[in-house]
Specification:
Elements lengths: L2 H12 L20 E5 L2 E4 H8 L3 H7 L2 H31 L6 H15 L4 H10 L4 H23 L6 H10 L5 E2 L2 E10 L4 H19 L4 H8 L14 E2 L5 H8 L10 E2 L3 E11 L2 E2 L2 H31 L2 E3 L2
Antiparallel strand pairs: 1-2, 1-9, 3-8, 4-5, 4-7, 6-7
Length: about 325
């Protein structure tokens, strides 16, 4: 199970889904109702799965159509059913431990939902429950289950996913190539097109020669580029932003690599244009310091450890409890 799946599961656990009015109805790929799965004595209906799918449906309907949409709906249904099965397994484990959530804690969570998702409008909240055909008591119990499963996941997964400093450092040293910042340069280009006739080319050659002489006399490159260049960035004085060499016109890489900062090139001619180049600034290739990437490495390793713990835990729960899926 990857991190994205766990995050989706956590979303299912963290907040009851109240999205009836915002989501399109799936096509007949997914039957209207009936059993989707059974975990011990807990029934998961197709309506439960459809409700849990609701947040992603608008995106699916925007991106797909026809047979492709049907397949995406079916895939999402199967994935969502598995998430609900996992949620039921976790709740069963919570009950087996004798866990209980006090009523005032559940009520506080509902109050937070009303405040955050309905701007404190209790009537709007109750209207949404009615649209979902959910009684307040059913919603309260669903919230209690979600809190229970979320708390147990935190205990089983998040608190145990600890990465020691040595592992973080070793990961950095082993994968140091991933933290290489490539060489970058800022450069400017003054470009003159040959024109369509030999006479035009001769005139442009003469103009390029005069510009080069003015540069050699100390005039500002960008000012001259603004005045004379026929390139796309003439309005910016011919200046380009920071770029890696691989992102620069292949014909310019070699001459640019030979220039020092502040130096301009001689006239460079190719099949259709005259060019004068200048290197404005250069950043040599360097590795990101460990101090700058330590937290990112820790976050990545912690996520991988959570994945591992979650997968192992769910596989154990699947062996300990009865599961039946219905097609």
């Amino acid at each position: 199970m990857n991190t994205r799946t766990i995050r989706h599961s956590l979303l299912l656990l963290a907040i009851p889904l109240l999205t009836h009015a915002q989501s399109p109805n799936p096509t007949q790929t997914i039957p209207i109702d009936g059993y989707a799965a059974k975990v011990n004595t807990t029934i998961i209906t197709r309506s439960d799965v459809r409700s849990a799918m609701a947040p992603i449906l608008p995106q699916l309907y925007r991106r797909y159509q026809g047979a492709q949409l049907e397949q995406q709906l079916e895939n999402t249904y199967q994935q969502t059913r598995e998430q609900l099965i996992e949620q039921a397994l976790i709740y069963a484990a919570f009950e087996a431990r004798g866990g209980q959530i006090p009523d005032h804690y559940v009520q506080s969570e509902i109050d937070r939902t009303v405040r955050d998702r309905f701007q404190g409008d209790r009537a709007k909240f109750e209207e949404t429950l009615a649209a979902e055909k959910i009684t307040y008591q059913e919603y309260l119990e669903k919230t209690r289950r979600n809190i229970s499963t979320s708390m147990l996941m935190n205990e089983e997964i998040n608190r145990r996913a600890r990465i020691n400093p040595e592992t973080i450092r070793n990961t950095y040293e082993t994968n140091r190539h991933q933290y290489l910042i490539p060489e970058k340069i800022k450069h400017s280009v003054l470009l003159l097109h040959h024109g369509d006739t030999p006479q035009e080319r001769q005139l442009k050659q003469a103009t390029a020669n005069r510009i080069l002489q003015r540069l050699q006399a100390g005039e500002d490159f960008n000012t001259l580029a603004t005045e004379y260049s026929e390139g796309a960035r003439a309005d910016q004085g011919g200046s380009f932003p920071w770029l890696q060499l691989k992102d620069i016109d292949p014909a310019l890489r070699a001459p640019l690599s030979q220039l020092t900062v502040g130096q301009h090139s001689p006239i460079i001619e190719n099949e259709s244009r005259f060019l004068i180049l200048k290197v404005d600034a250069r950043r040599n290739a360097a590795y990101q310091p460990f101090s700058e990437v330590r937290e990112a490495i820790k976050k990545e390793l912690t996520a991988a450890e959570r994945d591992r713990l979650y997968t192992r835990w769910i596989e154990r729960l699947k062996k300990e409890h009865y599961i039946q899926r219905y097609d």
